[in-house]
Amino acid sequence: MRIGIDIDGVVSDSYPCWLTELNLHFDRNVAVIDDYEMHLVFDVSRDAMNDYFVCNAERLLMAPKPITGAKEGIETLLREGHEVIYITARTPEEKDVTVRWLSMCGIPHEHERVLFAGVSSKLELVKLWGIEVFIEDYQVNARLIAESGLPVFLLDASYNQEELSSGITRCHSWDEIIKGIQAIKG
């Protein structure tokens, strides 16, 4: 199968790192990011949040560790003969730092299979690349992709606790994701 995988919150354990950095920068004491729209969590404008990320992109994208089990899970998928295509909401300008992070962490990837949706819909890239299953952490993307008929595995997070739409399976670990994909493959 051709499997699409998001990066932040799925492969990169970005949010705990970002929580610390954002609390320091905005002088807040937020305990948990409970909304994907982080500017709302930190009570700042969308522009202020975007400016902070743009000015600090390298540090914010290189600092996180991989999500527990992500590297091993991706290796298992590849060993079982699946194709892996990373589709992230990061911008094309962040490609170099993203590929360096994947390499630094030993996460298997091919440069041409790391795709950057930026502000566009990931669904366009999912269709263009013939993705058959998607692994995501953001409910809005998960819902759009599932509505197109693809199974989506949603990695559980503090900011994605809404009720699940049809076609989305909540997973609490990469082990659960792998078992779910193996069940589809039959």
From the alpha-carbon coordinates, what is the Rg to the nearest angstrom? 16 Å
Unreliable runs? none
Average residue pLDDT: 95
- Reading off the top of the CATH hierarchy, the class of the largest domain is best stated as Alpha Beta
Outline the structure in words:
With 186 residues, this protein is α/β, with parallel strands linked by helices. It has two domains: 2-13 and 66-185, Rossmann fold (3-Layer(aba) Sandwich), CATH 3.40.50.1000; 14-62, no CATH class. The protein contains nine helices and six strands. Strands 3-2-1-4-5-6 form a six-stranded parallel beta sheet, with helices on both faces. Helix 8 links the parallel strand 4 and strand 5 (152-155). Helix 5 (70-79) runs parallel beside helix 9 (174-185).
Topology at a glance:
Blueprint: E1 2-5, H1 14-26, H2 38-41, H3 46-55, H4 57-62, H5 70-79, E2 83-88, H6 95-104, E3 114-116, H7 122-128, E4 133-136, H8 139-147, E5 152-155, E6 168-171, H9 174-185
Parallel strand pairs: 1-2, 1-4, 2-3, 4-5, 5-6
Overview in brief:
Its EC number is 3.1.3.-. By secondary structure, the chain is of the alpha/beta class. It has helices spanning about 15-25, 40, 45-55, 55-60, 70-80, 95-105, 120-130, 140-145, 175-185; strands spanning about 1-5, 85-90, 115, 135, 150-155, 170.
Key descriptive features of the protein:
Rossmann fold, 186 residues, 6 strands, alpha/beta, 6-stranded parallel sheet, 9 helices, single chain
